[in-house]
């Protein structure tokens, strides 16, 4: 077993990154996959969502970046946690992650810290998912360098598509310095079936990006908010909801990629 590593990122906030990371993890888990989620956002939304509160956590992804030693399999065993009632593992975030930029300033090879660390845990999982912060900095660079595929959730409204060019340009610049160019696939999220504008945006997305868009479209579903309010994922709230089914379909698409 050697895990496929997926970064879920977009410089825009509120587009469904965290929802995608957690729901996709659960959907892959339902297909028998072993999944590890790393919360790389200093806002700790994914961690709080699954009730791994940063102020109570004895370990976090920060330890990966501050450790003086190489990250061993035993080290991972100490920081990996299993959120209550869920079917995937997780390493929570910590607010102090936002100081990393300054703390790592002088560190050599600072962009590959996560990639090197992940090497010693890949054999224990089928998928490793990174919930990324919305700004381009040391954490996002580490996530992209360590990943096999970048998933870009895109909210289906006109402003979001406008922002897409910015993100793709960023990736082009990054790909020049990455050890191997990173593939990406966009995921249409929060699609409102009743809004004509949404349909036009979706068509635009498919026209512009062709196969680099997942066939699965994630529709609007209030059950997502219900799930986060209950500290769980949509499968616990309503496994036959549209949102639940959509992420199952995404999981199948992703499994079929390899
Ligand atoms: N498909 C969806 N339908 C309805 N609400 C959603 C959907 N996806 C996400 N949300 C809600 O939108 C908000 C922002 O989503 P989130 O995943 O936290 O975005 P990000 O991580 O990109 O900031 C959250 O309150 C979440 O519950
Ligand atoms: Mg988020």
Helix content: 40-55%
Rg, Cα atoms, Å: 17 Å
Give the ordered list of helices and strands. EHEHHHEHHEHEHEHEHHH
Low-confidence spans: pLDDT under 50, at least 5 residues? none
How would you characterize this protein structure?
The protein has 258 residues and is an alpha/beta fold. Helices cover 42% and strands 16% of the residues. The protein contains 12 helices and 7 strands. The protein has helices spanning 17-30, 45-49, 62-66, 73-79, 100-103, 113-118, 138-146, 158-177, 196-209, 223-229, 234-237, 242-255, and strands at residues 4-8, 35-39, 89-91, 127-131, 149-155, 183-191, 213-219. Helix 1 crosses helix 12 (242-255). The chain binds adenosine-5'-diphosphate and magnesium ion. Residues 13-19, 45, 189-190, 218, 220-221, 224-225, 228, 243 line the site of adenosine-5'-diphosphate (ADP).
